[in-house]
Amino acid sequence: xxxxxxxxxxxxxxxxxxxxxxxxxxxxxxxxxxxxxxxxxxxxxxxxxxxxxxxxxx
Length: 58
Known about the structure:
- This protein is mainly alpha-helical.
- The chain has a domain at 18-52.
- It is built from two helices and no strands.
- The radius of gyration is 15 Å and the shape is extended.
């Protein structure tokens, strides 16, 4: 089976702490927001947070 074409997204792999997985699943189910959109929001928040602080590797 061919992998689906993603025009506006890029696939990547990561991992979570075991204790975060169930809560993340539950949040997605309760809010009916896909996990990919929740991750987009979390990454956007992290990028905003660290733009305010000096980066170590600049």
